[in-house]
Amino acid sequence: MSKTVGALWVREYEKDGKKRKMMSGELDLGALGTIKIAVFKNDKKEKDNQPDYRIVLSEPNGSGNNSNSSTEEEDDF
After folding, report:
1. Are 42 and 75 in contact (CB under 8 A)?
2. Domain hosting residue 45, numbered range
3. Nearest to residue 54, comparing CAs of 64, 69, 44, 65?
4. Collapsing DSSP states into helix, strand and coil, what is residue 31?
5. Would you call 21 exposed, middle or buried from its count of C-beta atoms within 10 A (0-12, 13-18, 19+)?
6. Would residue 31 count as lying in a domain?
7. Which of 9, 22, 57, 58 is the most exposed, fewest CB within 10 Å of its CB?
8. Residue 28 domain-assigned?
9. Which of 25, 24, 41 is nearest to 77 (CA)?
């Protein structure tokens, strides 16, 4: 039996004048609550032991300087 613990949506954003894709959504951690995440392709990958994608925790709206930007290293999905 399997249980869904979250969902992701493909989103577009613009960086350096280019349209890029990422995934955003949330994970249900049960008693710990729900967290929002974003998934970005790791275009800086140079070795097989480096990840293909990075998962970052999204800041709640109103936190930080830009609630739509999770990191400065956002790359294509």
Report:
1. yes
2. 6-57
3. 44
4. helix
5. middle
6. yes
7. 9
8. yes
9. 41
Is position 51 within any domain? Answer: yes
Can you give the pLDDT of all 77 residues of the chain as single tens digits? 899 999 999 999 998 898 989 999 999 999 999 999 999 999 899 999 999 999 999 876 655 544 444 444 555 54
pTM over 0.85: no
Computed on alpha carbons and rounded to an integer, the radius of gyration of the chain in Å comes to 14
Check residue 65 and give its pLDDT: 45
- Please, what sign has the CA dihedral across residues 7, 12, 13, 18? positive
Q: What is d(CA 40, CA 73) in angstroms, rounded to the nearest whole number? A: 9
Q: How many domains does the chain have?
A: 1
Length, in residues, of the chain = 77
